[in-house]
């Protein structure tokens, strides 16, 4: 399970990949706590020459899942709130699939145990 500090390090490593292709300093601007992890917003940390912070194309926030340690770069073409909701639905589907598989395995084990008696 990730801590917020671990998640921050993962995000900063991804941001570092982009840093070589721009002339200004990049970093995490804001972090929001989610039921399953965090959403990290990132971009230019200082103002540019014109006194305004430069805007980047393609700097969608990173969603980090604390349980399974997933780092997901969100798209800039869809609202972040919708992408968070979509991921939460994905987690529920995955949990349902795991529960179904566990029940199926338990029934099979019980059937095998009964057959061997």
Q: Between the first and last Cα atoms, what is the distance in angstroms?
A: 42 Å
- Main beta sheet: strand number and arrangement? 4 strands, antiparallel
Taking pLDDT < 50 over at least 5 consecutive residues as the criterion, the unreliable ranges are none
Principal-axes shape call: elongated
Proportion of residues in β-strands = 15-25%
Strand order of the largest sheet: 1-2-3-4
Mean pLDDT, rounded to whole units?
Answer: 87
The topology string of helices and strands comes to HEEEEH
Distinct helical segment count: 2
Class by alpha and beta content: alpha+beta
- Kindly state the number of beta strands: 4
Query: Could you say how many structural domains there are in total?
Result: 1
The radius of gyration is 21 Å
Please sum up the structure shown.
This protein is α+β, with helices and mostly antiparallel strands.
Overview of this protein structure:
By secondary structure, the protein is of the alpha+beta class. The protein has one domain (4-116). The protein is 45% helix and 21% strand. The chain is built from two helices and four strands; from the N terminus they run H-E-E-E-E-H. It has a four-stranded antiparallel beta sheet with strand order 1-2-3-4, covered by helices on one side. A hairpin with a 2-residue loop joins strand 1 and strand 2 (37-44). The relative contact order is 0.13. The model has no long low-confidence stretch (mean pLDDT 87).
């Amino acid at each position: 399970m990730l801590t917020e500090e671990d998640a921050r390090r993962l995000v900063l490593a991804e941001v570092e990949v982009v840093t070589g292709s721009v002339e200004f300093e990049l970093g995490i601007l804001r972090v929001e706590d989610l039921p399953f992890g965090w959403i990290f917003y990132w971009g230019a940390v200082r103002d540019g020459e014109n006194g305004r912070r430069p805007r980047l194309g393609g700097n969608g926030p990173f969603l980090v899942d604390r349980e399974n340690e997933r780092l997901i770069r969100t798209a800039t073409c869809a609202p972040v709130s919708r992408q968070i909701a979509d991921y939460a639905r994905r987690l529920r589907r995955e949990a349902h699939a795991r529960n179904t598989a566990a029940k199926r395995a338990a029934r099979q084990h019980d059937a095998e145990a009964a057959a061997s008696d």
